[in-house]
Write a structure and sequence with these properties.
alpha/beta, seven-stranded parallel sheet, globular
Length: 143
């Protein structure tokens, strides 16, 4: 069963995603980042390249020949994604085959419409019996 982690209270989802993705993790860990739109993939790709002048966050698109050697994969469809340890969902819906991943990460901004969609995803995950953790990155009460 997947563990679902909701990180909420962030100003901007993509910036928070780039921050989470830049954190150290085991060398064998693989993360697939699901985005609905190509422009979101492009913006996240740019954020990961420019995160810090002194750091590098290795990542590629799932169509890259380097996917087998890269720990973070950016994609618009899970059909093209190889099996990973973590699914980082940047879409507005619950991914169809999310339970194939041991861990699912959701990031929720302070935007009211984003919070409403996240609540729907939360209810859907809970209804399917998965363990859910909520982590407030802003302090204060849960969304």
């Amino acid at each position: 069963m997947s563990t679902i982690r909701f990180y909420f209270g962030v100003a901007q989802r993509l910036a928070a995603a780039a921050e989470w993705l830049s954190q150290p993790r085991p060398q064998t860990s693989r993360v697939v980042v699901l985005c609905e739109q190509e422009d979101i993939v492009d913006r996240l790709d740019q954020l990961l390249w420019t995160k810090s002048a002194l750091s590098f966050v290795p990542h590629c698109r799932t169509s890259s020949p380097l996917v087998a050697e890269t720990p973070i994969w950016l994609t618009q469809t899970l059909d093209s994604a190889a099996q990973a340890d973590t699914l980082f969902n940047l879409t507005e819906a619950v991914p169809e085959n999310f339970s194939d991943y041991p861990e699912v990460i959701e990031v929720v901004s302070l935007d009211d419409s984003d919070r409403a969609r996240a609540r729907e995803r939360f209810r859907s995950y809970r209804a399917s019996g998965h363990t859910i953790e909520s982590i407030n990155l802003a302090g204060g009460k849960p969304a």
